[in-house]
Amino acid sequence: MYNIGNDQQYQLLLTLKVRQLHSNGFTGISYDDLHHILINHKWKRRQPTRLSEIADDILHLNEDEIVRWLAVDSRVKGYSSSLDDYRHLIEKEEL
């Protein structure tokens, strides 16, 4: 199994993908967002065993997949949150 960890090639691939997304107008996507999507969604059941598989997965991620997985994450966070988690927003509105 390929060890992603702090691998420079993995980091370079993610950085290139983020720059590509930003140049296509998806400026709200961060390096951490892509890393999270890959680890928790794309590779949840089977992590790639070779760098070539990792590169292929990263470079072929499309905007639709990214938006879908970020939407899934936001729904999951919404279900696990309580009103107290948003109290600071409510208090700022009352001012």
Question: Can you offer a commentary on this structure?
Answer:
By secondary structure, the chain is mainly alpha-helical. About 65% of the residues lie in helices and about 0% in strands. The chain contains five helices and no strands. Helix 1 packs parallel to helix 3. The radius of gyration is 16 Å and the shape is globular.
Strand content: under 5%
What class would the helix/strand composition place it in? mainly alpha
Task: Give the C-alpha Rg.
Answer: 16 Å
Q: How helical, in percent, are the residues? A: 55-70%
- Which overall shape is indicated by the principal axes computed on the Cα atoms? globular
Low-pLDDT runs of 5+ residues are none
Order of helices and strands, N to C? HHHHH
Calculate the mean pLDDT score and round it.
84
Number of strands: 0
- Distinct helical segment count: 5
Task: Characterize the largest beta sheet: strand count, sense, and whether it forms a barrel.
Answer: none
Cα-to-Cα separation, first versus last residue: 54 Å
List the main descriptive attributes of the protein structure presented here.
0% strand, mainly alpha, 95 residues
Topology:
Blueprint: H1 8-23, H2 31-42, H3 51-59, H4 63-80, H5 87-94
Brief account:
The protein is mainly alpha-helical. It is 66% helix and 0% strand.
